[in-house]
Amino acid sequence: MTKLLELFITVALIVIAFNVLLVIWARLRLIGKVNKLKADAKAEITYLRSPLTSLIKLSRTPDLTVRAGDTLYLVRLYNGGGIDKVIHFASPDFTVKFSRMKTASYTSRGKGSGVLSRLGFAVGSRVIPLPRLDTSAYERELKTVPVLIFCHEPGEVSFVTEEKTSIMTAFTGDGIYGTRIFTVSTFVAYVERAYREESRLAKERDTQGELLFR
Predict the structure, then answer these.
(1) Is residue 102 part of a domain?
(2) Structural domain span for residue 186
(3) What is the pLDDT of residues 145-171, one digit of tens each?
(4) Per the structure, how many domains does the chain have?
């Protein structure tokens, strides 16, 4: 019995260590992808907290800021838990993380055999406080965009509407309670696209100004 217990503890420790390494690796990859914006969007990136700190506690201050052109992105990181997890924004102040288990009922009566229904239910629910982002310390002349990046990405994100009348599914790039949610790849693509568009509009304004003074 003792050996069986030792084996169980050893396996559990290996699984925990493997998951910790996966999370650390995901954060290191995130840093690498975000840092590409220095070249691709001439971005200024400031890390205000260690990328691993948000695994322990979310903060009212950003984990990092990304300035691209005249836009300042205030970025917080959130461990979405992976493809088997659901993140539900129950209010502007807290989220719920859980796994969705599915069951199915079958019938084998004649030609109508097959799946009658599929049911889903939550297991392992955990309430996670989500402090409201403090934007008061940032430059007023810049356009500020609060951002929440999932790392790891969950399989599903939902939220209660501000009117508290329904629950909606959210997708990358959507806004929830004044914050845009992204995966790291879609965030980088979004910043690059916004920077190119901002640069294009600035060139058009400069060209029009030159024509006026000719």
Answers:
(1) no
(2) 2-83+128-155+174-212
(3) 999 999 889 999 999 988 888 999 999
(4) 1
pLDDT digits (tens, 9 = 90+) for 74-117: 999 999 988 889 999 999 999 999 987 665 555 555 555 554 44
- In DSSP terms, which residues pair with 91 in a beta bridge? 94
- As a whole number of angstroms, the distance between CA 60 and CA 48 comes to 12
In a domain, 65, yes or no: yes
- Order of all β-strands in the sheet with 94-107: 114-129, 94-107, 85-91, 156-160, 167-170
Return the structure tokens found at 192.
Answer: 């690059």
Domain presence at residue 113: no
The type of residue at 90 is A
Q: What are phi and psi of 143, to 5 degrees?
A: -80, 120
Residues 6+ apart with CB under 8 A from 196: 41
Backbone angles phi, psi at 56, to 5 degrees: -90, -45
Asked whether residue 120 is assigned to any structural domain, the reply reads no
